[in-house]
User: Fold Rieske domain-containing protein from Methylobacterium variabile.
Amino acid sequence: MTWIPVADLAEFEGRPVLAREAAGHALALYRVEGVVYATQARCTHAGALLTEGEVVEGYVECPAHYGLFEIATGRAQGGPVCRDLATYPVRVEGTRVWVEVG
Ligand code: FES
Assistant:
């Protein structure tokens, strides 16, 4: 597993989710009440990009069929989604955001 710098906190200005690529993994980075989380970028239902979804109160809604995931845990919340998202450890040093991928 390797820690990779993927973003600066300033990039979340006015945007709740960022699309990033790290070591071959497509990631969605979210900032929820000051805490940064990382999940796989693609929905587990049919692969739509969650980075184009709606982020509301700690959840991301898939833009394709409105599947809902809890951002902090990646847990699928029902509807068309039944498989959880992969999540990745995140750490923030100063304003730099690092994600551990392997
Ligand atoms: Fe996300 Fe269908 S692709 S709910």
In short: The mean pLDDT is 97. The two ends are 4 Å apart (CA to CA).
